[in-house]
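anyone seen this seq b4? input:
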Amino acid sequence: MSIPISLLALLLLQSADDPMALVQRAYQLQQSGDYAASAEAYRAFLKLRPDEVGAHSNLGVVLTRLGRYDEAIREYETAEKLLPNDARISVNLALAYEKSGRLPEATAKLSALHDAAPRENQVTMLLADACLQGGDYARVVQLLQPLEQQSPDDLALAYLLGTALIRQQRISEGQVLLDRILKNGDSAEARFLLGMQMFESGDYPASAKQFAAASEANAKLPDLQAYYGQALLTTGDADGASAAFAKELEQNPNSFVANLGLGQILTVRKRFSQAAPLLRQALLVRPQSEEAKQALSECLRGEGKLSEARPLPQRPATAPDFTLPDVATGKKVSLSQFRGKSPVVLIFGSYTCPNFRASADALKKLQAKYGAKAPFLLIYIREAHADGDWQSTRNEREGVSLPQAHLLSEKQDHAAMCSRALHLPFQALLDGMGNKVETAYNAWPSRAFVVARDGRVLYSTHLTELDFSPEAMAQAIQDALAAN
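predicted toks r here
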């Protein structure tokens, strides 16, 4: 139970002539868990004894428990100046930096500690964890592989190292550590690593199921909800992704992935004032992230803060030519036949791609407005989430089910059905079974391009909720029509 403020003030006043009694009282309050009262007692003591290192350090601990990280950092920094090279103070300062979102400073502090005592395993593990949060997976592997050889039964170490290896796409090496964890029975950690392995391999629907299973076992596992959100977003479930990202941020406000992902979703939904703080926090955690910089720039541009926004990246130069059959008539259509005559809008997708289906209405409105001057071509590619392959949570909810085509005639039937079901007014072309055009445009699972009269790609976008902006595409078409 917390001590009432009036009673605390009386106790502190009675102890004013006895600093030792005051600091003892502060420590007792700290041990009992009354951190607010303990903080006041330590501050009162430090007014009398401002150079007491232990009191500054303990006050930092108490303030950290209260979530007042900036104040805690000031106390630890003061303690460190009074007693340089004390590892305990430096570790606590690094942890306060990390909890406040100042990850680069935490990593620098832990790196200095590790350099001074490379065999101190606790520091090595803390540094590895900070590097993992910062996305420096190679450093994590470098730090932990020697320890793993010494302590093969340390599952916490195996979990950290396995996570870094999988995120580096070193799947087979990560699998060894995953198997070691699985030998100890099914667990949230094992499910998370298995889902991460599937995610990094590109099997997003399967990874989402593993993340969901891990969440049932331990919803508060660090980074789990962030990865679950990424998997849901990649399979077209932006609402589910938003909920997962929000859950991650409830327990870890400094999660780079969750801040970036939710910030991007809110930006696309034009909720710029909510998105901007999240994207700024993502940049605070990873200052060098080009993706975070660009996301914040887009958000600021949406808010009308053009002077703060970064320039948009340059677009690809030339659209690869192709010749494909019309789905309905079989007549051959080439991209080059439009050269010098009109811009062209190319849309790549399949019926089992939820992002493609979700963007269909907006694309139809664009076609109705601009299609007479800029032809829209649908290029039907391989199914994004065919039966027995990678299923999407959104497809399951919407009852969308279709097998992967094994013959060109089957693919043609799928394309015709897609045009009917979505009432698409575009001329539909059929990519071959070798997926050559899809590959040339890097268009799987769905994508759209605006191609100028001279064949240059003026605009390209994935058809996810994060990427696809009808307004931006409309502007690109207008620019293409205005160009000579």
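The radius of gyration is 28 Å. Residues 323-482 form a domain with the Glutaredoxin fold (CATH 3.40.30.10). kinda curious what u guys think
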